[in-house]
């Protein structure tokens, strides 16, 4: 055998030996490989498990679309996505929009919310198959607030009676600090001519007069009580420490310090106090508070006839009748700048009819979150509420 041929046989034998050695090593490692393979497969499955990253529009205008942006860490091309919503307080889920991912696992889904309020919004993947198994939809949730198309003015009823003692300087100051655009209040006149801020015709309900004043004084009409007695009592209805009964002059001084704040001021019991509106107007004018139709103060009353007579004598002064009825012909109130309408009659159609006659609409008294949302969406220009902070939080 030649040296060259011997060398070729040796090479082939060496290759066979090496192959056998590699096979033996492989066979010996099979048990270990069998133990490792499931773990590696699990790690791989975890790494490729689809994950959603969702950016929600946390505030949007009701009825106007906004976008949810979706991105998956592992792209599954053209997968169907859904956006659903329900009120935050509970209710039925409603489908808002659907879309498919792009080739890069992204989607931009536009949807709209039907009414003002707080909603829980959900983004989920439609069912799909991964290998030999069906994977359920992945879900991501967040809270989204829908605000009115045009936010109504928030009018703090008695200064915000849910947040401080009603019709007190503490209530008015807090409402201004919270951002209420308008203060609503009530005025009576004492027997000696002082205008005081008080809703009721007597001091019994809202103050400690029964404990502080002589027997029977708490039940006297305010127009028969001197201011010296009113000054002795404190308002103890509402949260927080009891507060003195303010005079109208005290409230007007506060308004002078906050020129952006407006006033909706009610003349009470005008049958018993026939000159009350005139006296109120004199004090407003003396304090430099603009009472014109485009000004800061509006005088309102349940006594529509008396208010209309007052408006005829002062046609440039802004007035608003308080109504608890259907307004069949709003044009008959053209002498007013607005109508203060109680909630049972404040439908969207009624508000639209009043607007068509050139009048604003303030709705009273709205105390619940659904009500705050509904009357804003109905088109009210102002919402009179004991909870101004809650209304402001909803509308902003």
UniProtKB/TrEMBL annotation:
- Please provide the record's keywords in A-Z order: Signal
Task: Specify the domain of life of the species encoding this protein.
Answer: Bacteria
> GO molecular-function annotation terms?
phosphoric diester hydrolase activity
InterPro entries linked: GP_PDE_dom, PLC-like_Pdiesterase_TIM-brl
Domain GP-PDE span(s) in chain numbering: 152-395
Gene Ontology process terms (BP): lipid metabolic process
Q: Which Pfam families match?
A: GDPD (PF03009)
Q: Which residues form the signal peptide?
A: 1-41
Which Gene3D superfamilies does the protein's record reference?
Phosphatidylinositol (PI) phosphodiesterase
Q: What is this protein called?
A: GP-PDE domain-containing protein
């Amino acid at each position: 055998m030649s040296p060259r041929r011997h060398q070729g046989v040796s090479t082939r034998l060496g290759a066979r030996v090496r192959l056998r050695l590699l096979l033996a090593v492989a066979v010996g490692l099979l048990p270990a490989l069998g133990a490792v393979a499931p773990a590696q497969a699990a790690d791989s499955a975890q790494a490729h498990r689809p994950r959603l990253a969702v950016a929600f529009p946390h505030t949007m205008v009701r009825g106007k679309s906004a976008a949810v942006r979706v991105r998956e860490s592992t792209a599954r091309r053209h997968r169907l996505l859904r956006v659903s919503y329900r009120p935050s307080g509970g209710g039925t889920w409603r489908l808002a929009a659907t879309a498919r991912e792009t080739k890069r696992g992204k989607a931009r889904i536009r949807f709209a919310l039907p009414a003002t309020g707080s909603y829980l919004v959900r983004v989920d993947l439609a069912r799909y198959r991964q290998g030999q198994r069906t994977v359920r939809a992945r879900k991501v949730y967040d809270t989204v607030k829908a605000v009115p198309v045009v936010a109504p003015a928030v009018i703090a009823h008695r200064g915000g009676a849910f947040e401080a003692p009603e019709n007190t300087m503490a209530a008015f100051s807090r409402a201004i600090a919270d951002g209420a655009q308008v203060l609503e209040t009530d005025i009576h006149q004492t027997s000696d001519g002082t205008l005081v801020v008080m809703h009721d015709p007597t001091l019994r309900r809202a103050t400690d007069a029964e404990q502080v004043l002589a027997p029977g004084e708490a039940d006297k009409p305010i127009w028969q009580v001197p201011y010296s007695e009113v000054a002795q009592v404190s308002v103890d209805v509402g949260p927080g420490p009891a507060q003195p009964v303010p005079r109208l002059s005290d409230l007007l001084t506060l308004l002078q310090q906050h020129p952006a704040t407006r006033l909706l001021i009610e003349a009470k019991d005008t049958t018993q106090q026939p000159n009350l509106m005139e006296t109120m107007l004199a004090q407003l004018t003396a304090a430099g508070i603009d009472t014109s139709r485009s000004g800061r103060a509006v005088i309102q009353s349940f006594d529509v006839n008396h208010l209309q007579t007052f408006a005829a004598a002062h046609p440039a002064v802004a007035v608003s009748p308080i109504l608890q009825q259907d307004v069949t012909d709003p044009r008959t109130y053209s002498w007013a700048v607005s109508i203060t309408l109680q909630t049972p009659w404040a439908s969207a159609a009624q508000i639209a009819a009043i607007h068509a006659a050139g009048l604003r609409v303030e709705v009273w008294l709205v105390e619940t979150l659904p009500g705050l949302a509904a009357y804003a969406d109905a088109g009210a220009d102002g919402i009179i509420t004991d909870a101004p902070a809650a209304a402001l939080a909803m509308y902003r």
